[in-house]
Amino acid sequence: MLDNVAALGLGPVFDTVDIGLVVLDSDIRVVAWNDWMARVTGRPSKDVIGKTLHEVFPDLQSPRLITAIDDSFAAGSSSVLTHTLNKLFSLSDGHGELLLHNIVVRPVVSNAQVFCLLQVSDVTVAVTRERILRERQNARYHAIVDSAPDAIITINPDRTIQWANGAAEDVFGYGLSELLGQKIDLLLDKDSALLSYLADDAVFPETDRAIGVTGKYKDGESGSFEVSLGHWTADQRDFVTTIWRDVSERVASDRALREARDALEKINQDLETRVEERTRENEVAMRQLHESQKMESIGQLTGGIAHDFNNLLAIILGSLGLLKKAVPDDARVARLLDRAIQGAERGATLTTRLLAFARRQELKVTVVSLQRLMPEMLDFVRHSVGPNISINVDVAPEVASVEVDANQLELALINLAVNARDAMPDGGSLTIACHNETNGKAHGMLRDDYVCVTVTDTGEGMSEATLARAQEPFYTTKGIGKGTGLGLSMVHGFTAQSGGMMRIKSAPGKGTTVTLWLPRASERDAAEVKVVEAPPTVTSSGLRVLLVDDDILVSMGAADMLLDLGHIVTEAKSGMEALQILDADSSFDVVITDYAMPQMNGLDLAHKVQERLPKMPIIMATGYAELPSGKAFEFERLSKPYSQHDLSAALVVAMKGK
Q: Residue 468: enclosing H or E segment and its boundaries?
């Protein structure tokens, strides 16, 4: 029997690895036991060598582990046992806390003899972090859903109500305790079309349109609702979430309108033709208005959610940045932190796209020459679409410059190019062309002079139904993991916020043409383009900073970054509290305030601070473009989510004039 690791040929690394290693012989006796196992069990190798696994761990109750060891000897197979499905060893850290761990079982051959190697990995930190993150996400989700104006009710396959939001109580008049455990039939007529969708023996429906139903309030009255359905599965159980929008007033208005129209037709038969024509025109206008209002409503909701996620990402990125500086020089920990930071930065990119759709991004408008921009980004476009797609660029010398955010324009064109690539899986042609337009008002624009950038592909094209929803956020026809559905919605928001518009023409089998109408720059603006030097990013330490933010987590994260930079921080949870602090002590060097705060927003606070202390530098932190632009806004701006580097740079600029 082997009594040391060298006999197995494993070398000196056996005791240095950051996992537990145990080698067993065919009698399931321990022949090797590394330092990691000695540390987490409190038993050195000399106490366990030669003993069976059951003697070392008398409380071992995992038949699956013993079976995996037997299979390793008998068939040479390897197995992975996780803490979630198996009761494994009793291990603890240096403080006596239980370690969650996984075990890999695999055969090892040495000197013609077969052994079994157990690799024990500590997953306590990862599992704890995942649980905390999931709890935070669930809390944020319930807060968002409970704030929705529509009633949201989740049922199981037998139509029993499992969950309802606060709006459900307000809409129907029932208390939450009166709804939970009841069948959703309580809220419907017995012959309602919705019940046929939710029949016990029916497959849960997949529908992308709302179902019109008659619902019943607690007081016995009936109302008209539009109900949307969503099917989902959790813990191998099926659920359906129903979203109820009360449209009783709209239905009554429509009914009154129809009755008035009928009366008018009976009174004045001679005007029947004109009435029909006017009605058709009105219906077209109503559809256009409905689409406009729908996009505006979605944009407002999307922008608000993205703003909240920006605050969360600011907390995460700031904390991870400080943690990376504080942890020991450990390559594995550094990799984990880098992955977490990269994930948070991807989340920040996603919120940027959401804010672009909602028209709440911060645009840095400059005069952009398309003759210069297109060649510079051509190589990147080629790299994005691949070698099987030919690219043609047509920018005539007479095409005027445009007034837009150059980075957002590049991102918009890349999004359109990637969409075109996905529409041409077998290859094709992509054409980017620019031309001047002088009839903008005829197309519903505010002025005549624009520059049109058209992106045309020879791909599959879109059906009329797909085209109607193409600009909605998260709507995509691509497979899972192949697209977020934010590309066209981001382009739509960017062009609208820039003072232009986006138009799409497409048909199945005939490709797609996307036209961006961009505001043309005047000749004087084009001639006055200046290069702005980047501000320095190093500031001295020891500043007295008054930090104002109503979100305590955001405030704590910013305070930690400022303290790490060597500054002295005083926190205030509101504008009123900040003014009280300044009245008592005006010796602060700078004020950093969030913009979106209840009762007194950051801009109001800044003006009141200026009245008291005209020379006080002020930095305004904001998650989206909610602040006035141009000369109307004279304070330094700090965009969320921001890093410690961004915060330091903003302090440099703010303190420059003091």
A: helix 464-469
Q: Can you tell me the distance from the alpha carbon of 60 to that of 64, in angstroms, rounded to the nearest whole number?
A: 11
Give the 3-state secondary structure percentages of the chain, helix then strand then coil, rounded to 5: 45, 20, 35
Sheet of 113-122, strand order: 30-33, 20-24, 113-122, 101-110, 79-81
pLDDT at residue 83, as a whole number: 76
Q: Span 155-173, mean pLDDT? A: 87
Q: What digits encode the pLDDT tens for the residues 94-103?
A: 777 888 889 9
Edge-to-edge strand order for the sheet containing 568-572? 568-572, 544-548, 590-594, 618-622, 636-639
In angstroms, the CA 369 to CA 521 distance is 9
For 512-538, what is each residue's pLDDT tens digit?
Answer: 999 998 999 876 555 554 444 444 444
Contact 623, 296 (CB under 8 A): no
pTM score of the predicted model: 0.36
pLDDT tier at 338, thresholds 50, 70, 90: low
Contact 494, 356 (CB under 8 A): yes
DSSP string, 115-156: EEEEEEEE-HHHHHHHHHHHHHHHHHHHHHHHT-SSEEEEE-
Residue 414 · residue 420 · CB < 8 Å: no
| CB-CB contact of 570 with 581 (8 Å) | yes
Between CA 612 and CA 580, with CA 655 as vertex, the angle to 5 degrees is 30
